[in-house]
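Thread amino acids onto this structure.
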């Protein structure tokens, strides 16, 4: 009596592509919606019609005049809840992705390692996503362009971090090289487009991080 054939070993390249593509799609879909919430929440909180208007608490000046608030508290309570739900869904989805594509990474061999993979990809991706957001604001991208980039390329930072954790060391080097190139490109873009008094992109990013949990800007006349 013939025994059933053993299942074929997984195609490593296919599993790696599924992991990277899944991280990209999840990051783009969920964080793109987060970006949409912020951009549609009236965060362009003030315009400066005259020199008598004083705006405090700004993260970045708008193109020409005004102020953009990156504060989480510029959102309504429902929108804040939606942001937390989307970010939570991102981490849960990444955890499921890491479990389903465990063969692709050297860091997904057991449940504890898969949890660490989820934390690293989710947290590292959020840091990279925030950097990209700062670059687009400081370089004066329009809201429509920012939304388009968020939904199409918002998952790239998550895929790059996942790439640094793939089994082939060449993939790790490639992901690290691409990340370094994108960091440098963002630095150059901000240096060439934003006012000199804002400082370099890393200074602007630090201001963004400080303003995220602060109260929205106040306007006095």
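Threaded sequence (221 positions):
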């Amino acid at each position: 009596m013939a025994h059933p054939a053993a299942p074929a070993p997984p195609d490593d390249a296919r599993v790696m592509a599924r992991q990277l593509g899944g991280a990209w799609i999840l990051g783009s879909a969920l964080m793109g919606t987060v970006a949409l919430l912020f951009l549609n929440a009236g965060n362009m909180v003030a315009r400066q019609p005259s020199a008598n208007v004083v705006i405090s608490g700004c993260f970045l000046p708008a193109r020409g005049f005004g102020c953009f608030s990156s504060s989480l508290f510029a959102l309504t309570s429902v929108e804040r809840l939606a942001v937390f739900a989307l970010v939570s869904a991102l981490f849960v989805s990444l955890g499921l992705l890491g479990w389903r594509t465990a063969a692709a990474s050297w860091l997904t061999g057991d449940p504890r390692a898969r949890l660490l993979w989820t934390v690293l990809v989710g947290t590292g991706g959020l840091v990279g996503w925030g950097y990209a957001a700062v670059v687009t604001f400081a370089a004066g991208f329009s809201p429509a362009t920012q939304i388009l980039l968020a939904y199409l390329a918002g998952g790239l930072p998550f895929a790059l971090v996942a790439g640094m954790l793939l089994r082939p060391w060449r993939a790790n080097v490639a992901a690290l090289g691409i990340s370094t190139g994108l960091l440098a490109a963002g630095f150059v873009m901000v240096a060439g487009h934003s006012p000199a008094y804002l400082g370099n992109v890393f200074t602007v990013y630090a201001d963004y991080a400080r303003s995220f949990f602060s109260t929205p800007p106040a306007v006095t006349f």
